[in-house]
């Protein structure tokens, strides 16, 4: 019998894996993180080899997702899902899965999760049976990724918007609150994200996710496409000036750059 509980962390961002490892060391010093995985396939392979007690699985990973990995692991470990979709996680996980964590992981929330894990392990309770829930969750994630409406209990609920975007700024991985974003602009195979940082300074970063994929996950009441390569946060718009040939330029609050409005989207600003 192992003297220390063990864990596996799966996330496609190495800095997030390291951050969660560090947080766990603070709230659960006895826990030994025996493996880190970049995707679901690696997570399953590492699990089969090391048989950790707990698996922290990022829901969205390339290739095999955290949900698919959880299917493979089953009840052989206690599962904790990690997600950037807070309301979506409540809808999907609250009805039976042990716990979930929302990025960025808050210390208080992690401490609650650790407390529940300890109770289950000390009581020698088996991991929860989550098979049916995982099947429904996988279907909901597939719908969300297509920009559709996740189905809950047979009824349609509105797709819940993205709250954070992960971006590498120099050597630092930033979790950018979507509410702070001024605009997104397609840049070859990447998307340029422009936002105001905590000090109120204009900032920019490139992310690997394409603009089309990001649009499907944004709140459409606040973010609108104004050009085939530009999406703007309406609350960041200062004013709009019209140009020739039924085009316009968007002036932003606290930023010098102008954003183009193409003819196809000019109707959005008729009343401005």
Portion of residues within helices: 25-40%
User: What's the pLDDT, averaged over the residues?
Assistant: 81
**Radius of gyration, CA atoms, in whole angstroms:** 21 Å
Q: How would the global form be characterised?
A: elongated
Overall CATH architecture of the largest domain: 3-Layer(aba) Sandwich
CATH class of the largest domain: Alpha Beta
The CATH topology of the largest domain turns out to be: Rossmann fold
Number of domains: 2
Structural class: alpha/beta
Task: Walk me through this protein's architecture.
The protein starts with 5 loop residues before the first strand and ends in an 11-residue tail after the last strand. About 4% of the residues have low confidence. With 272 residues, it is an alpha/beta fold. Helix 2 runs parallel beside helix 3 and helix 3 runs antiparallel to helix 6. It is elongated and about 75 Å long. The strands form five sheets. Strands 2-1-3-4-5 form a five-stranded parallel β-sheet, sandwiched between helices. It has a five-stranded antiparallel β-sheet with strand order 12-11-10-14-13, with no helix packed on it. A three-stranded antiparallel β-sheet has the order 15-16-17, with no helix packed on it. It contains seven helices and 17 strands.
Defining traits:
2 domains, OB fold (Dihydrolipoamide Acetyltransferase, E2P), Rossmann fold, five-stranded antiparallel sheet, 272 residues, 28% helix, alpha/beta, 7 helices, 17 strands, five-stranded parallel sheet, single chain
């Amino acid at each position: 019998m192992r003297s220390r509980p063990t864990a596996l962390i799966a996330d496609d961002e190495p800095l997030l894996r390291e951050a969660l490892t560090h947080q766990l060391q603070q709230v659960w010093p006895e826990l030994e993180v025996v493996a880190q995985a970049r995707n679901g396939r690696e997570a399953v392979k590492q699990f089969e080899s090391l048989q950790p007690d707990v698996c922290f699985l990022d829901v969205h990973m390339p290739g095999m997702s955290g949900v698919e990995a959880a299917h493979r692991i089953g009840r052989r470990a206690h599962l904790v899902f990690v997600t950037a979709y807070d309301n979506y996680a409540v809808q999907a996980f609250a009805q039976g899965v042990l716990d979930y964590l929302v990025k960025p992981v808050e210390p208080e929330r992690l401490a609650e999760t650790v407390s529940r894990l300890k109770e289950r392990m000390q009581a020698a309770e088996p991991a929860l049976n989550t098979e049916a829930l995982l099947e429904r969750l996988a279907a909901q994630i597939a719908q969300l990724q297509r920009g559709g409406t996740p189905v809950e209990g047979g009824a349609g609920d509105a797709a819940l918007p993205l709250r954070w975007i992960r971006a590498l700024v120099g050597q630092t991985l930033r979790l950018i609150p979507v509410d702070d974003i001024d605009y997104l602009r397609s840049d070859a195979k990447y998307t340029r994200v422009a936002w105001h940082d905590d000090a109120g300074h204009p900032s920019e970063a490139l992310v690997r996710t394409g603009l089309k994929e990001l649009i499907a996950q944004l709140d459409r009441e606040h973010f609108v496409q104004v050009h085939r390569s530009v999406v703007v946060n309406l609350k960041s718009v200062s004013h709009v000036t019209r140009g020739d040939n039924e085009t316009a330029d968007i002036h932003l609050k606290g930023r010098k750059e102008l954003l183009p409005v193409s003819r196809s989207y000019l109707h959005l600003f008729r009343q401005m």
